[in-house]
TrEMBL record:
This is Putative polysaccharide export protein, PEP-CTERM sytem-associated. InterPro entries: HH_AprE-like, Poly_export, Poly_export_N. Keywords: Signal. It holds the Pfam family Poly_export. Residues 1-21 form the signal peptide. PANTHER family: POLYSACCHARIDE EXPORT PROTEIN GFCE-RELATED (PTHR33619:SF3). Residues 158-334 form the AprE-like long alpha-helical hairpin domain. Residues 33-102 form the Polysaccharide export protein N-terminal domain. GO terms for molecular function: polysaccharide transmembrane transporter activity. Coiled coil: none annotated.
Length: 399
């Protein structure tokens, strides 16, 4: 193959992938097992404290600084651990149960340099490969060293392509259902991309199946909220009854105090016997005891109502957090699949491990030579793309 045609094909293939990647929806990841040291910015929500909720950037030492709570080091923590730490800190400060959620807004980037169109930082997501990073950097450019006329090609079977396409179709249908559930929409709209990938009839069939799942899940959530609402209504009715009883007892106490005082005065003047005055005092004490018991019952019911109201918020919050997590995972998967599908559709794209050499600089100078196009990258990695005659870029790791 002519050398110019080869590099035109490579540039065309990676350019189409890059365009697709640019148009992809950004992913907000909340994978709770992901160590936060790889993150750059976090979204923290504290239930009941909107003034403390918001976006926080992780500093060079791995710290975030929050008003009231202070500086928190997130090094070595995952999202679940940080959520517990913040919840405990809120409880310690306020004396009330705290609930925090943590999401990763952005990770530290990967840096791509060498034989790519746009050297520099590219956004990292879990599972980012060398091939995807090169695509995000604009694709390959022609190296200065000589090339063989016949580069090797990546063979892709129809069965493998079909498996990847089916996975993408299922993911698109599932995320449509999850987004409808998050919006509490009763029906799922068929995404245009699903019709394009699967065809009109297959897309309708998939959405009908997802609709059954949506109805079941929304019915379950509504049942939980309805049970909570019934319990809260019953508790409010009981509270109203107890408050009326307290009002009645307050009136009886006032009247009985007047009677007891009058009997005590008459007893002192010898008009009534001492037993009569004591009986009036006993009746007053009995009514006051009933009032005390009523006040205790009122406090108990008020506490129950507060718990039920908090429970309603927790049910909705847990459902929303779970949906956000599932959606972010699928968005990441769809994004990665779309790049792979674009590569597979480009018959002209060729890959040669003899012509193009990938090297990964990690942890301040540790170099992984001869990385494969499917090798996964980590945040802050430096990917050096060169031809087969390139020297090992030891200086890159020192920068």
């Amino acid at each position: 193959m002519n050398r110019r045609l080869l590099y035109a094909a490579l540039a065309l293939g990676f350019s189409s992938v890059f365009t697709h990647a640019q148009n992809a929806t950004p992913v907000q990841s909340r994978v709770t097992t992901q160590v936060l040291s790889k993150a750059d910015r976090l979204l923290v929500r504290l239930l009941g404290y909107p003034e403390l909720s918001g976006e926080y950037r992780i500093g060079p030492e791995g710290d975030i600084t929050m008003a009231v709570i202070g500086r928190v080091n997130v090094s070595g923590l995952d999202a679940a651990s940080l959520e517990k730490l913040l919840s405990d800190r809120v409880t310690e400060i306020t004396g009330k149960p705290g609930k925090a959620t943590v999401e990763v807004i952005a990770y530290k980037p990967v840096f791509v340099t060498g034989l790519v169109e746009n050297s520099g930082a590219v956004p990292w997501q879990p599972g980012l490969t060398v091939l995807q990073a090169v695509a995000l950097a604009g694709g390959l450019v022609q190296p200065t060293s000589k090339l063989n006329d016949e580069p090797g090609s990546v063979e892709r079977s129809d069965a493998e392509y079909r498996k990847l396409l089916d996975d993408q179709i299922r993911s698109v249908a599932t995320i449509a259902r999850l987004k409808s559930e998050r919006a509490h929409a009763p029906a799922i709209a068929i995404p245009d991309i699903l019709t394009k990938l699967a065809g009109k009839d297959a897309a309708q069939d998939l959405i009908q199946r997802e609709q059954l799942v949506l109805s079941s899940r929304m019915g379950s959530l509504d049942a939980q909220l309805a049970a909570n609402a019934r319990a809260k209504t019953a508790a409010n009715d009981e509270l109203h009854r107890l408050q009326e009883q307290r009002t009645l007892l307050d009136g009886q106490i006032e009247q009985q105090r007047s009677t007891a005082a009058e009997m005590n005065d008459l007893q002192k003047r010898g008009v009534v016997r001492a037993e009569t005055a004591r009986e009036a005092a006993f009746r007053l004490s009995d009514i006051e005891e009933k009032r005390t018991n009523t006040l205790v019952a009122i406090a108990r019911v008020q506490s129950l109502i507060f718990s039920l109201e908090s429970g309603e918020t927790v049910i909705k919050s847990d459902s929303s957090s779970r949906l956000d997590l599932d959606i972010s995972r699928l968005e990441q998967k769809i994004f990665q699949n779309s790049i792979e599908l674009e590569i597979w559709r480009s018959d002209t794209v060729k890959q040669s491990e003899f012509l193009i050499r990938y090297q990964i600089v990690r942890n301040g100078g540790v170099i992984t030579p001869d990385a494969k196009f499917y090798s996964e990258l980590l945040p802050k990695d430096v990917l050096v793309v060169g031809d087969d005659g390139s020297s090992t870029p030891s200086a890159v790791g020192d920068k």
